[in-house]
Amino acid sequence: MAAPARFAMSVDVEDYFQVWAFSGVIRRADWDAYALRAENNTRRLLDLFDEADAKATFFTLGWIAERAPALMRDIAARGHEVASHGYDHKKVFDQTPDEFRADLTLTKRILEEASGARVRGFRAAGFSIDARTPWAYAILQETGHDYSSSSHPIAHDHYGDPDAPRGSHHVGRVIEAPVATAEVFGRRLSCAGGGWFRAAPYALSKILLDRASATIAGPAIFYLHPWEIDPDQPRIDAAPLKSKLRHYVNLGAMEKKLARLLRAYRWMRVDAALGLS
Fold it and tell me: pTM for this structure?
């Protein structure tokens, strides 16, 4: 008998001014000059998840958790998983192994102190654990992380490895749980969320998610960001046109579309979908 389909919901808790699409025009040193909107937007997501009886994993920047510790407590109190997204959204392949180890250790401490819950999972900024970082999993294991969801196994101009495994697999004692992809006529397509979900028709996204869940080992993992349900966020006019198109596409329709998706499946935390909780 086939195992029941598993769908895992995840949220990358970062703010609109911290995304890679705008990193060329907004410096990390200037982040505190921007109004923090991630806390209220994440609370709205928590309410949407409650309404759908859905559970999720919140991969959170340490930078956000320092400024919104009560939000971390609320995420854990509502039965969701608090996990690491690194401290300030640096890509793993832009760090040395020692820098990565320090980033993991610092962020884990901040998140655990704020939430009162153990941090077991990690998602790299920009899905940046790949062939350039063969040392990353040993450091994740060393720093007490049980799994990573840092692979997007597709071809993309900013991230991805089209030759990486599509399903969950062990690297040493750490589980790598890639976000969802489907194969159509021999080509891998993302059905993992983010801008892909906002841009695509809902029916197509659901067809691809169903195909992913039927053809990969482990859960079909979906992701989104709090700013994606915030059509009123300030516009970054200095950003390149391509970045603005990707970031702002269909923000106004996202909340309704997400609510529909939440009703379509039984959504789990990533750790639970991997059998870790």
Answer: 0.96
